[in-house]
Each structure stands twice: as C-alpha cells, then as structure tokens.
Amino acid sequence: MSSNYNVTRSQIIQLENTTKKKLATYSSKYAQYVTKKPNFKEIELDKSIETLIKERGELLESITNSIDEDNDELRSKYLKHKSELNKDQKELNNLRSCINQERNHLNLLITVKKDILAENNNFSSTEEYMNDESMRIDKQTSVMDKLIQDALNSRNQIMEQSNEILFNSNSRVNRLLQRVPGISTLLTKINTRRKKNMVIMSCLIGVCMFLIFLTF
Q1: What is the superkingdom listed in this entry's lineage (predicted)?
Q2: CB atoms near residue 133 (< 10 Å)
Q3: How far apart are CA 103 and CA 111, in angstroms?
C-alpha cells in the first residue's frame, strides 16, 4: 500500500510541476497580451491545464483511503497537495476571468473605433456631396447671370437701334416735308395757330381764376 502511495504521490508532484509551468506560460504569454479572439495555442493550453488539474484531483481521491488517520505525516502531505490543487484551480479561473475581461474591453474598443470611422466616412461623404452641390449651384448661378446680362445687353442694343431708327425716320420725314412745296408754309401756320390757341387758353384760364377770386 505504501508503495502504491509513493508512486501516486510521485505522479501528483510531477503533474503539479507541469501545471505550474503551464500556468506561468498562460499568464505571461496570453494574459498580458490579449487578442480579440483566442488562437489555437491558447485554447489548447487552457484545455491541457484543465486536464492536469482534473488528473491531480483523481489521483488525490485514489489515495484518500490509503492514508491512516493516525499518520500525521502522510495526512499533512495529502492536505498540502490538496491545497496546491485548489490554488492552481483558482489561478486558472482568475486567468480566464482576466483574459475574458480584457478581450471584451478590447473588442468594445475595436467596435467603437469602427463606429467612429464609419461616422467619419459618412461625414466625409456628406461633406463631399455638399461641396459638389455647392459647386453645381454656383455653376448654374453663373450661367443664369450670364444669360441675364446677355439679355440686358440685347435689350439695350435694341433700344439704341430703335431710337436711332426713330431719329433717322423723323429726320427723313422732316427732310421730305421740307422738299414738298407749301408744306413748310402749312407747318408754320399750324405752329403759329397752336401758339395763338395756347395764348387764348392761358388768358381764358386767367380770367376764370380772377372771376372765382372776386366771387369769394
């Protein structure tokens, strides 16, 4: 029985050493440098540590009945192995918890960064669209201004041509009238008669105003 106990305890010690080495690797390599997803090696390492702890527990259970309650030395060694088992299990759980928290935090940061980049891209697209629209409106406004200016220039030219045509027509009519015999005399009489009529009308208006003044 003592021989079996020694063999089992030797296996437990060996598994303890292997477990602690792998826990140290887990802590230094994966707990301090967390990635957004666990890779194959990290998963395999976690499984191997879990398997070692399970095997150690089974071995401790197998020697429980072999320990004499009066044998304080064996019992002390057993309790020490049991304590190391619980300690390593707790350390594994803590490492898993820390890695998961860091991974969640990292993924959250990545998500926020993606949202910010997407928002910036949308803003850039909107800004480019607004710039394009502004340039398009400026071009249309420029075209309209040119059309309006051309229309004004055309109107001014037409008015100048019309005035010139009317002036030329009046000049021609006057020249023609002057060439026709008796027309000049007739026009002079008409103008003289107009002046007389204007004098008569002025006098009449003056008399009426005087009579109205006397009435009051």
Answers
A1: Eukaryota
A2: 10
A3: 12
